[in-house]
């Protein structure tokens, strides 16, 4: 699979723009964005800076511009067309690291497209840029087999077990649950049983 060439206009048309086959609607995404921001707020995390890795058609950007106007937003994409259309930075997360850190990093539907040698460097870059919370959504082998709609979910990904991603992420983050990971550089502001797999 050619990673960058895969994200052509046909990909965005099918999985993000066509009402019949898109993976998520703007309304559905709005519920997710509210949840992520309210979860951060409930946990005492003051989100002032957001990095959106793999920003796609700009769903997070539009929601933040409308609902969190004081938040500094940075979006990145490997698709030159999406960068030109939405003003994202053309960056490859496996090879790029922002000098700034961000309170919230969104990495939704990205890591499953990276070949094996790129996953660990990408996660290390995410960790270096994290000042707190990472929201990661990754499609795994089990998801493709049992939990996704093949018409609405891209099957042209690297198929891996969830344990593979958990192992790499756990080197830099603590799994909080619901797709959230907290940087190991700071003590987590969560109760023990709000966190996955950390009970002693």
Pick out its properties:
36% helix; 200 residues; alpha/beta; globular
Structure overview:
The chain has 200 residues and is an alpha/beta fold. Helix content is 36%, strand content 18%. It has seven helices and seven strands. Strands 3-2-1-4-5-7-6 form a seven-stranded mixed β-sheet. Strand 4, helix 5 and strand 5 form a beta-alpha-beta unit. Helix 2 packs across helix 3. The protein is globular, with a radius of gyration of 16 Å. The mean pLDDT is 91.
Instruction: Write down the secondary-structure element order.
Output: HHEHEHEEHEHHEE
**Strand-residue fraction?**
15-25%
Q: Give the C-alpha Rg.
A: 16 Å
What is the residue-averaged pLDDT? Answer: 91
Structural class: alpha/beta
The strand line-up of the biggest sheet is: 3-2-1-4-5-7-6
First-residue to last-residue Cα separation: 42 Å
What best-fitting shape do the alpha-carbon axes yield?
Answer: globular
User: Count of DSSP E strands?
Assistant: 7
Tell me the helix content.
25-40%
């Amino acid at each position: 699979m050619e990673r960058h060439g895969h994200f052509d206009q046909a990909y965005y048309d099918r999985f993000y723009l066509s009402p019949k086959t898109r993976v998520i609607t703007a309304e559905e995404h709005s519920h997710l964005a509210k949840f992520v921001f309210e979860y951060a707020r409930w946990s005492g995390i003051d989100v002032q800076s957001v990095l959106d890795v793999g920003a796609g058609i700009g769903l997070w950007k539009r929601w933040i511009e409308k609902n969190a106007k004081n938040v500094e937003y940075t979006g990145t994409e490997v698709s030159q067309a999406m960068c030109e259309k939405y003003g994202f930075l053309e960056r490859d997360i496996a090879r790029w690291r922002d000098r700034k850190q961000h309170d919230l990093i969104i990495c939704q539907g990205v890591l499953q497209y990276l070949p094996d040698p790129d996953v660990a460097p990408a996660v290390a870059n995410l960790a270096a840029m994290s000042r707190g919370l990472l929201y990661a959504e990754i499609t795994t082998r089990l998801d493709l087999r049992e939990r996704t709609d093949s018409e609405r979910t891209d099957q042209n990904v690297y198929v891996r077990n969830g344990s593979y991603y958990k192992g790499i992420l756990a080197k830099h983050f603590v799994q909080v649950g619901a797709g959230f990971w907290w940087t190991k550089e700071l003590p987590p502001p969560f109760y023990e049983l709000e966190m996955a797999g950390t009970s002693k």
